[in-house]
Amino acid sequence: MGEFEKHDACSACGWSADLQRRCSYDSSVKLFYGASVRGVWSIGSDFVLKERPADPPTFEVVNTQYLKANTTIPIPDVAKEWTDKNKRHFVLMERVEGENLKSAWPKLSQEAKVRIAEQTAEYLQQLRKFQYGKMANLGDAPIYSGWLFLQGPGTPHGPFASDEEFWQSLSVKLDKLPEKARNAFRKRFPPCAPYTFTHGDLTNVNIMVKDDNLAAIIDWESAGYFPVWWEFTAAGIGLGKEDAEWKGLLRSKMQQFERGREFWKDFHKLCEYPKLDYSGQELMKELLRE
């Protein structure tokens, strides 16, 4: 076929436009999602292939197997999992028919949006029965949550056998806070037990829909036993206008944990100290008066 300039090649597959013109082959293997150092490929019409670094570890397969054995939550099957010699981790999964909620949202009626939120909340209710004496992943592995701890998504935490252990790890982000304010804020720390199995990332790209109904909940790689209020709180972190609309609707159908949500929102503000916005400054004034 001849040589081609490397800078002309697709960064994902190495194929150049010139080579494509010389060949009638149209690949059914396509990259359809990428974020940071990971990507997801469609493999024909039946499978998807997820690629990411092996570190930090992913718990998607063990979580998927556990939930499929113990719940009726619609989750795609895993066909194969492996780590190659370059320390890249791969998971080959069944492809869910339909589309993600982000794509479907503008086309859905309000009635369909409400129904999908109700269906999602009903399935999440099944997770509430899975509780554990520690904050941990399955097998007592550490948990990973960039949003909860605000210390980066690849940072391991725990396992924690008590709320106090959890607070000590969480409060690392508050080490610049005046001691009086930090002690006052500690008193607002809500009880976290029972540590409850939690998805923790119910963004609209992780909700699959078909025919105006929920088809599957995907991306369980960071699920684990978290504070009882974390699922509700995490569903308050909107990543864009439509995702915020979806999560607001979903929260209205979920078990309410407003105290936990308010605590985390205040924690998020205080992590910016001393560069606080107006609401953060007002919060600091309250804490220093207590």
TrEMBL record:
Q: Which residues cross the membrane?
A: none
Q: Which Pfam families match?
A: APH
Q: Which residues form the Aminoglycoside phosphotransferase domain?
A: 58-236
From the UniProt record, list the coiled-coil ranges.
none
**SUPFAM superfamilies reported in the protein's UniProt record:** Protein kinase-like (PK-like) (SSF56112)
Question: By what name is this protein known?
Answer: Aminoglycoside phosphotransferase domain-containing protein
